Amino acid sequence: MYGSESSTVPEDLERTAFRRAEKKYKLYYEDTYKSSKKKRKPKPVDLSEVLDFNSILESYYQNVELPHGVVPLRCGFDRPVFSLENRPGFYFIPGALSVKEQCQWIKESLTSFPQPPNRTNHNAFYGPINDLFIAANERKALVADWGSNSECDPSVSNGGVHGWKFFEEHEVSSKGSTCKSVSALVLLRKLRWSTLGLQFDWSKRNYDVSLPHKKIPDTLCQLAKRLATPAMPLGEEFQPEGAIVNYFGPGDMLGGHLDDMEADWSKPIVSMSLGCKAIFLLGGKHREDPPIAMFLRSGDVVLMAGEARECFHGVPRIFTDGENDEIVTLERQFSHEDDFSALEYIRSSRININIRQVY
Ligand code: SIN
User: Fold this and answer.
1) How many cofactor units bind, and how (predicted)?
2) Using one digit for the tens of pLDDT, what is the confidence trace for 190-219?
């Protein structure tokens, strides 16, 4: 599902309205800056059609008319919740998470969520990796362990690697040129997803209950239950059983897709945005349906339940430049907490935690 600025898409997909919107909003750079990566300048994009729930919230508080099709929900939730007339089951809660909560979940997403037995995109190649964030802060490198062989054995499928272990950078250089290694910082930057609770198997696009797993942390469960209430009109309680954490770096996008592997689509997906601002595309039941574009900022929460569960959606763009990322308050909070490595990470990243009831 992930792509980057350089990904190619088959021509026939370009014909759908969803794909055209993805192309419109995704990050392109000015040609003149192509040769020098450091100075690359994003091409300007027309954002006039992107719904902005920050200004919608302001209009709501000032009793000013809302954009056509945006409807405030009367549901007794402790913050304003908005729905969209032509996308039943979709709810937007602007600024649902306090800045403190945002910091907390960013830190958890970097430290505890990628810890085994939770799986990440790195599992397929490296196996389970413990303490990646700590290793990245300590500038360590992950080094291949060849077991009794002293170096790579080309006759074996993975070169004969028995496992991977973190070492100090200076220890790696003393191992010589045959040593296969990758810096922990690079691995942290290449972290794309981790899965909590029931583990999602991306190759089968389904949950694999046979995989070892821990329950979703209780504080996250309680938060998700509370946030889900506007989409649970019958007063039932949402039961968080699995969550996917998506990590976005500059130029990353999440292509249009459906989240349809859960048994009961009347239950919402609770989706929390953290870090840099993004554009979210909410399509219809077919890729040909023109999607609605909206900004997602740190602390915003989106619920997708019922009919909205059948709608294609994706994230074509995140904004990592100081002018547009809109993370000033987050930066302040992180500086207070002396958490400079998390701050450094989130300055050019976005994290999305989406929590699901699987059965
Ligand atoms: C998703 O649809 O899986 C994630 C959406 C987001 O990143 O906001």
Assistant:
1) Binds 1 Fe(2+) ion per subunit.
2) 999 999 999 998 888 899 999 999 999 999
Tell me how far apart the alpha carbons of residues 28 and 237 are, in angstroms, rounded to a whole number: 43
Judged by DSSP in three states, 109 sits in: helix
> Which helix H or strand E contains 193, and what residues bound it?
strand 193-197
Whether residue 359 has pLDDT greater than 80:
yes
How far apart are alpha carbons 318 and 296 in whole angstroms? 9
The amino acid present at 70, given as its one-letter code, is V
The per-residue pLDDT for 11 is 59
- Nearest alpha carbon, ligand 1 atom 2: 314
Residue 179 has what pLDDT? 66
90 CA to centre of ligand 1 in angstroms: 13
- Name the helix (H) or strand (E) containing 133: helix 132-137
Q: What is the pLDDT of residues 294-329, one digit of tens each?
A: 999 999 999 999 999 999 999 999 999 888 889 999
Ligand 1 mutation pick, 2, 205, 271, 281, max ligand atoms within 8 A of CB: 271
Q: Is 162 annotated as a binding residue?
A: no
Structure tokens at 233: 């009109």
Domains in the chain, CATH or no CATH each = 2-114+191-356 (2.60.120.590), 123-189 (no CATH)
Report the atom number in ligand 1 closest to the C-alpha of 278: 8
Task: Tell me the residue length of the chain.
Answer: 359
Pocket, ligand 1, Cβ cutoff 6 A: 246, 254, 271, 273, 280, 296, 313, 315, 352, 354
- The tally of CA atoms less than 13 A away on the side-chain side of residue 149 is 16
Instruction: Give me Rg for the CA atoms of the chain.
Output: 21
Q: Model-level pTM?
A: 0.92
What are 161-190's pLDDT values in tens digits? 778 999 998 777 666 656 688 999 999 999
Share of the chain above pLDDT 70, in %: 88
- Angle of helix 99-110 versus helix 328-336 axis, rounded to 10: 70
- Note the pLDDT of residue 37: 60
Phi-psi region of 235 (alpha: psi -120 to 50; beta: other; left: phi over 0): left
CB 173 within 8 A of CB 188: no
